[in-house]
Specification:
The chain is an alpha/beta fold. It is built from 2 helices and 7 strands.
Length: 162
């Protein structure tokens, strides 16, 4: 193979990567004052961003915090507290300790006859990441769980009053 052909095959991928990097480049505008330019260039909704059902600011009631605590080196976990008393319109904020991946779900099989159950939340993995669940269910008791740790007992009860 001639030097020209070998050089061409080396240059094409390099130019392709440069073109890709230029197309993905950020804005020339300076970052707003008081922000980190690298942080402001990051995409808005990454896995490290807490995923939320409705935002807490849209809540009509109180925000009740529940910790998702990993146990047995992340093999299982517990909700602290495991039983929560709220009113319709409140927000329950489930906060991860970062020990393993957790989520919150209200399985229909564990809540026979219940309607208006929230869907399963996205998984949170980082310490301090949270998932907000707006309480839209009517008065009653509802069982919730962390799907990957439910068989190890990571379950709780949500008592709702009107």
């Amino acid at each position: 193979m001639s030097i020209f052909k070998r050089s061409f095959f080396v240059q094409v991928p390099v130019f392709g990567m440069l073109a890709f990097a230029a197309a993905c480049g950020g804005s020339d505008a300076p970052a707003p004052e008081g922000t980190d330019a690298a942080a402001s260039a990051a995409p808005a909704a990454e896995a490290t961003t807490p995923a939320a059902e409705p935002a807490a600011s849209a809540a009509q009631g109180n925000v009740v915090e529940v910790k998702m605590v990993s146990t047995n080196n992340g093999a299982s976990g517990v909700f602290e507290p495991a039983e929560i008393n709220v009113k319709k319109g409140d927000v329950v904020r489930f906060v991860s300790d970062g020990g393993s991946a957790h989520n919150v779900s209200f399985p229909a099989a564990e809540n026979a006859g219940a309607s208006n159950l929230p869907g399963a939340s996205p998984y949170v993995t980082g310490a301090g990441q949270s998932v907000d669940v707006q309480v839209t269910m009517g008065a009653g008791s509802y069982n919730f769980q962390c799907d990957p740790h439910s068989m190890m007992g990571m379950k709780g009860k949500l008592n709702v009053t009107e």
